[in-house]
Design brief:
The chain is mainly beta. Helix content is 12%, strand content 35%. Belongs to the PHYHIP family.
Length: 355
Amino acid sequence: MKSAIRQPMKEDLDSNKSQDSGIAEMEELPVPHNIKISNITCDSFKISWEMDSKSKDRITHYFIDLNKKENKNSNKFKHKDVPTKLVAKAVPLPMTVRGHWFLSPRTEYTVAVQTASKQVDGDYVVSEWSEIIEFCTADYSKVHLTQLLEKAEVIAGRMLKFSVFYRNQHKDYFDYIREHHGNAMQPSIKDNSGSHGSPISGKLEGIFFSCSTEFNTGKPPQDSPYGRYRFEIAAEKLFNPNTNLYFGDFYCMYTAYHYVILVIAPMGSPGDEFCKQRLPQLNSKDNKFLTCTEEDGVLVYHHAQDVILEVIYTDPVDLSLGTVAEITGHQLMSLSTANAKKDPSCKTCNISVGR
């Protein structure tokens, strides 16, 4: 990812002339310039810069000021007053910054640097601040998603049999599909619901389906948060030996129940290629969430009981492959996950690198 440079505001830098924190100033120390940010992940980055050779050997420490970009009122730190800013021993550059802050994934930050020389009395001689660099942390990697996957497996519960995928919408949605899209539901960009670091949010194109069933009937529930009209399609039309299955996310919305996002992609499709690069692939016949197995020549399907599955199918789906009918239950808007924010305090569905 590319970083951007903006010139520091006068009030940002404040010339560092005050002595109130025990930090002295001396122009002889070189000012960092041409700052480079590299190797950016969701919770770490490398930083390097150039310095004039004059007095370079006197440098004992680097002061690094990191702020979320949206925090417009942040003040430059005073060494003794704000312990959240990094004071690092002078090490060879580039220097890896990891674990010094709780960096969040997919978040814009600003960073500036000073060089410093620690004196015998504990005070510091410091340079002027560098220019301010802007950069954005990355999405979760497959390693981080695998950690989420393992957490989700713990609470997935036993598997229940099902036979159809379904999608609820308002009647106007299906009328629009018939009139403007030749009867085929089209993939759309996934919203920002779920984990903030999810690599599919705002990037993956797909169509959301559900497959949860009621325990006592084995059929889809009659209530829905998304509309009173339901498209039902036989499970084998979307999930079969010619598709791949991926784990996409695990989250909750300040509730006791949890959601797992899975992605079904026809083999070799653009959606499949997108997921192969970013998401952990699941064994379609043997996993804790959604399975497709063969019994006596017939495909049999099971879903996890104790999590709510949100299934994204990455290709268009023609309405003629299933049926559209009005449900008899209620429209439970409170259960909608549209752009829902993940509970950052939940120990069940969060990992330590961010939310």
